[in-house]
Amino acid sequence: MKVGILGGTGPQGRGLGRRFAMAGHEVLLGSRDAARAQETAAGLAGAGRVTGVANADATDADVVVVAVPHEGHADLLTSLAGALEGKVVVDCVNPLGFDKQGPFPIEVADGSAAQEAQRILTGSTVVAAFHHVSAVLLDDPDVTDIPGDVLVLGEDREVVGRVIELAQSIPGARGVYAGRLRLARTVEAFTANLIAVNRRYKTHAGIAVTGLPAQDEA
Amino acid sequence: MKVGILGGTGPQGRGLGRRFAMAGHEVLLGSRDAARAQETAAGLAGAGRVTGVANADATDADVVVVAVPHEGHADLLTSLAGALEGKVVVDCVNPLGFDKQGPFPIEVADGSAAQEAQRILTGSTVVAAFHHVSAVLLDDPDVTDIPGDVLVLGEDREVVGRVIELAQSIPGARGVYAGRLRLARTVEAFTANLIAVNRRYKTHAGIAVTGLPAQDEA
Lengths: 218, 218
Description:
The structure is a homodimer.
Chain A: E1 2-6, H1 11-22, E2 26-31, H2 34-43, E3 50-54, E4 63-66, H3 70-80, E5 88-91, E6 96-99, E7 102-105, H4 113-120, E8 125-128, H5 135-138, E9 149-152, H6 157-168, E10 174-177, H7 184-201, E11 206-210
Helix pairs in contact in A: 3-4
């Protein structure tokens, strides 16, 4: 599969790019700054096929992952709405604020970053996924298996199934359907809880769903 | 430990009452209707020491679990604020609405049910926990081990530790600190995602945190 990543030079974008490349996908690593994307892509060359490009060129893919900070999210998607038409867009943006007590979810007028993306990208199918997999683990070439589940939320069952397959192409990861897009806010916000877990237990936590039937444990 | 349960005749309250009794705790199962509480308690007699009482009498315990529907939550706590003074109050209320697309989190003016409880119970220490353990599994006497983690949120580290211990007195369950009370909304709301998981996969799902250090895996 050809996977584009908007914001591919940030920790989550670069980590996902590494894993998708390791899984044999062709990765278009996008950035506002194409030169920086090329530099990051060069650093991932050992993982597989990764090309650094401008964000606009990273839309030339089967699936486009959005991994930018929430601040620039709406503006970037608005500028790329035409290029993303007809495509599957996977949003993994976590709208969080930070103060002296740590991270907290910030309000998004559309309910969640994923719903914001779907409102802007009227011609695309937006799915929310990859919020909780640790960027540190994703980007560590010594980590062979990514622990935990990738929660996948969306309206279109077939498209959700494709994103679950993309998640499961990453060794160790399991994709689990976790509700319609209107429940994405909770999954985005839960990243703040995981950061609290990380701080308390000095780890890189993820989450797993218990009790799934065996055929979905694959 | 002596554990009181407000709303002990509902599915979550009754299930938790069963597990706490199985773990050897003395359980005061409270209800608006003391006669109904006695009836439910009689049904749990095989599990251990369970007494059915009026909600007001269930406050005479070391830890008081609040397992009522969100509709009556604020009024009940307001009426019991005096009796709950100085106590540890564990809120497991999930403020959810339901429509034809399934469950969704509803807005709570205080941010979450747990924060609402803490605002009302100025003399108590409120901790949020036990939102995600399946009431069906808790209340099934044939289930010996409860899978998954109990996420525990609160401000007071010592009290959070006590509630983690209470959670871990239930065979199979692990208590995990998951942030301050201001992050409780996400944990409450995540119950809607778990219901979506249950519907899709025909199961009783829970969640587990991955990546915790071994000493916390106990």
